[in-house]
Amino acid sequence: MEPMTPEQIKRLLQRYYDIPQMIDEEWATIRHCQEERGKFSLQSPNLSGMPTGKGSTSDQTANTAMRDNCTYFDRQIISCQKRIVRLQEQRDWCRVALETLGRAERRILELAYMGPKDRRQREKWSGRRPTWKEICAEVGFSDAECDGGWARKKASALLKELSELSPQEVFNWEAF
After folding, report:
1. Per-residue confidence (pLDDT) for residue 167, from 0 to 100
2. Which of 76, 154, 28, 17 is nearest to 145 (CA)?
3. How far from 65 is each of 20, 29, 34, 85, CA to CA, in Å?
4. Do 76 and 104 touch, CB atoms closer than 8 A?
5. 0.70 surpassed by pTM
6. Cα–Cα distance between 65 and 1 in angstroms, integer?
7. Where are the domains positioned within the chain?
8. What is the C-alpha separation between 104 and 136, in angstroms, rounded?
9. Alpha helix positions (H), 54-147
10. 69, 105, 117, 157: which could form a disulfide with 101 (CB 3.0–4.6 Å)?
C-alpha cells in the first residue's frame, strides 16, 4: 500500500465504518458468481459423427459460449477477491493509523469525517454534520479557547500527519 494524500485519507475516514459491509457485499457477489458459474457445464465434443439431437450442447460453438461465460464469472470472482484485499488493507491501515493519535485528535476526525459507528445514525449525521465550532466544543475547548477555525485547522493538520505515515511506519511488524 503506497502513501495516501490527505484528501484520500479524508475519503477513507468517511467510509471507514462502511468497509465491513462493503467486504460482505463483495463476498455475496463471489457466492453469486460461483452459483451462476455452476449452472454452466461443458460437455466434450461428439467425435462419433452421430447426431446428438436437438438442443445438444456438444458442438464447439456452444462449448465456446459456455466457456466464455465461465471465464466471465472467474474474472468477476478474481476482481472481487482483489477488492476485498484492498478494502482489508485500507481498513487495517486506517485502524492502526488512528491508534497513533491521541483521544482528542481521534475525536476531531470522528466528528469531522467519520460520524457515528451505527450506519443508520451515520446516514442521519451525514445530512447535518457538526460545525467546526461544535467540534471544538465537543472536544472540550470553550469559545474563548478556540474559534471554529481551530478545529478545521487541527483536522487538516491531522490528515497531513496521517498522510506522512508510510505503511511501514503504520505496520511496525516488530510491535506485533
Report:
1. 62
2. 154
3. 36, 22, 17, 31
4. no
5. yes
6. 38
7. 6-175
8. 10
9. 60-99, 103-109, 119-127, 132-139
10. 105
Q: Count Cβ atoms below 10 Å from residue 173 Cβ, excluding itself.
A: 6
Please check the confidence at residue 172 and state whether its pLDDT lies above 50. Answer: no
The residue type of 169 is: E
Residues in the chain: 176
Whether the CA torsion 110, 95, 81, 25 is positive or negative: it is negative
What lies within 8 Å, CB to CB, of 54 at 6+ separation is none
Read off the C-alpha cell for 145: 479557547
- Give the integer Cα–Cα distance in Å for 137 and 160: 23
- DSSP code, position 117: S
Average pLDDT over residues 85-93: 91
Residues 29-42: b if buried by 16+ CB within 10 A, e if exposed:
bbeebeeebeeeee
- Which residue type, as a one-letter code, is found at position 37? R
